[in-house]
């Protein structure tokens, strides 16, 4: 599908009564939800990487109090954390997207990953298997997410992650996966400030950001740098309620975190030869001309920011 056609269709659906449900059905029939298993496997690999980064940063998942920004259609990360022994996982979304049928499918598919979860969280696999079986059974019998996880996983939507009602210094780790690239830059700063408030002293904030042009996933005639051809004014016509892209570059997410007071302890920013070549072969809009190519071309990044041990800002 041509990326412009998708952008216009999504913009139209965003202004129609019932547009959100229509968009969901289209995603199941033609989009990312069409192949649940493939998408789920990608999410689990992302979760494995997050668990590894958190472990290396001294904040293992087992026993942790976690806060996820952007629950999505089904809560893969929160459920994997629950199976791995997290003390609490609060997951929030600005809009209520969670679908019960996908939640059930997610819980069932986790049965195939109990060994991975056990290893990543350093807990016995028998315990992970026990939790998974109980989770699937309780969801099948009609329990909601909180009841099915004995109160560990709490889903809240609509909630603005930049302005929660959570207590100060009550969370060990704030995290997101492929979310911040869809948030307005000013709101990204608000999310960082709120994370600083709710994190315990020495707590960490982990974000995995996919900051390439997402239209490239449906239109293979373009690459993930395509949207850098356009000014903000021109790009606005393609942004929509279902696929807003802020076009922030990878380093900017880290710089903004530092400005909010976080100490950066992980930064995977790395220019790829393929992206550098793609950038050199295209016309970039002058508004991006001040950014060095090796920074402009980066389309994904994982980073961790840590609050000061002496106490977070309020």
Question: How would you characterize the overall build of this protein?
Answer:
One of its GO terms (molecular function) is S-adenosylmethionine-dependent methyltransferase activity. Pfam families: Methyltransf_11. It comes from Dyella telluris. InterPro entries: Methyltransf_11 (IPR013216), SAM-dependent_MTases_sf (IPR029063). The chain is of the alpha/beta class and 314 residues long. It has a single domain, classed as Vaccinia Virus protein VP39 (Rossmann fold, 3-Layer(aba) Sandwich). It has 13 helices and 7 strands. It has helices at 3-14, 19-29, 36-56, 76-83, 100-109, 114-121, 125-140, 145-148, 185-198, 232-235, 250-259, 273-280, 293-296; strands at residues 65-69, 88-92, 153-156, 171-177, 199-210, 263-267, 300-306. A 7-stranded mixed β-sheet has the order 3-2-1-4-5-7-6, sandwiched between helices. Strand 1, helix 4 (76-83) and strand 2 (88-92) form a beta-alpha-beta unit.
